Model the fold of this input.
Amino acid sequence: MTLSRAAVRSQIISDPPDVVETDIAIIGSGMGGGSLAYALRDKGVCVLIVEQGDFLPVERENWSFDAVHTEGRYKNSAVWHDATTGNDFVPGNYHYVGGSTKLYGATLPRLRECDFGAIEHADGISPAWPIDYAELEPHYAEAEQMFWVHSNKGEDPTDPWRSTDYPFPGVPHEGAMARLVESAKQQGLHPFSAPQALDRRPGGNCVLCQTCDSFACMVDAKGDADMCAVRPALAAGRDVEMLTNAEVTRLRTTDDGRTVVAAEITHRGRRIEVRAAKFVLSCGAVNTAALLLRSASDTHPGGLANASDQVGRNYMAHITTFFLAADPRRKNEAVYQKTIGINDWYQAGPDNPYPLGNVQGLGKLRGPQAKMGKPRVPMPILDEVTKYTLDLFIQTEDLPLPESRVTLRPDGQISIYRRETNLAAHHDLIRRMKKVVRRAGFPVVLTRSLGVEATSHQCGTARMGNDPATSVVDANLKAHDLENMWIADTSPFVSSGAVNPAITAAALSLRLGHSGVLTH
Done:
């Protein structure tokens, strides 16, 4: 059963006083913040989720290609600055209850077990985490149950060991994707059912439509942080409340700088503040870093929790490419095609001395999406061409570099500088996939590489570590420099791996919520 907004309305603070007090304030309601609230829902402490946005409206435009992609109807982030080119851009970063998961592709793979150790890449070393896979495994399992993950155990040769099977079977391949899967197997590869967070449970609402990836779900059938974490947390009792339309502008500390005492907030044009015994930042890797930098003070001149000068550094977002394969003689009959994964070159092997990355299905592209990459091509042509394309997403691990970072411009605007790594490995993976699809009967291949504007896999800006001189938070996500602040999103990632980061963020939050450190 899914919960309606009406079912949790009583837990939404619509007219807050000038000062709101709570035990634990979670800033952000995306995968990290939402999962943490879910873990704390029955711990006997008062929890307040502070969300900059509101519930995303349910309307027919949710499933409109023109509204979503041509008009950018749901883009509500501030404009960011690309420090490499000097251009401004609107990122794929969303402020709604559930955060960016409201419009994500709902693919939830675990990091591989090897990803938690040091890995040699063509362009350097991907560093080891201060925790190992075994410490997160039970929380991965809980997250897969929470988010209705569908896949098949044993298909992916790189899938790490698991204490439980996937909660639901994989979504069947259809149309051109089914043809690619069969051909890939004949070519000696191991295509698998990509883990998808959909309500395909018995009696579930998912109809496997073509408007899932980058769209909001009109029938509440996407396993996002709103549906699977925030609403169940709010519905569990009186201990969890939420303040929406509340933008946190800075955090204020005691005079000695050791304890956060308040979050200063703009709420519908009013200035209010939230006071709490403990604060958890879950704003997403870029906005968490920006909030810490905006909270600079006499005791924290370089930004809050930034004695190490690591806040904002080591920004990673994967090296990514849209890969379109087409057979001009035959249309792609698939409606829901995000069902495939290929990890045969995820790790170093006999014919690839370094890891190459991951391949997975994209939501079915249509003209308005293709127009973003081919603006000069008339829409009728793009609409017709995409009827024939099989759409894939290729990603390679991005290494953490101190110069790849989030900073603030003098006017407070977020600025991102990123130096891409492992480009040769990424191009090798593209080359290999071109051979695979052509042997499968798709002779035409189009690619579009994504740049700094591709922010959906952002991570690494407040890395975890045991040494306060080289990290922002410890292995339990607590800020080294503060007594009562934790970070629970993708900011603490030490490396990015080459798979989607969302369920790892959820697992880290569940681990924190169940550890007892926030409730003692």
Notes: The two ends are 33 Å apart (CA to CA).
